[in-house]
Design brief:
It is built from 3 helices and 4 strands, in the order H-E-H-E-E-H-E. The chain is an alpha+beta fold.
Length: about 100
């Protein structure tokens, strides 16, 4: 339809409330030396974690979390913080602007 000139723009809007996802956050993770790969793997297994990957810099792993509410986010953050090989975490909650 684009090539025929019938459409010039297409926009998709997801209603995350209907998907049951209302809180989006990143959990930044500082790991013990040499543990970042194992920690990232363990984090990926936690329900509510959409993605987890290693980084370079101040934080060793970033986990992207998608959950229904702040209670569920708290549960995920505490599970991550309690993993073997994790030194510290910081949770950044998406802000509606």
């Amino acid at each position: 339809m684009f090539s025929e000139g019938l459409l010039s723009k297409l926009e998709v809007i997801l209603w995350v409330e209907r998907l049951g996802i209302m809180v989006l956050a990143c959990v930044l993770v500082c790991c013990e030396p040499g543990k970042y790969s194992e920690v990232a793997r363990k984090i990926r297994e936690i329900k509510g974690v959409a993605r987890a990957f290693s980084t370079s810099g101040r934080w060793d792993v970033v986990a992207e979390v998608e959950v229904a509410d702040l209670k569920a986010l708290t549960d995920v953050a505490l599970k991550i913080n309690g993993l073997s090989g994790v030194r510290a975490t910081e949770t950044l909650v998406e802000a509606a602007v």
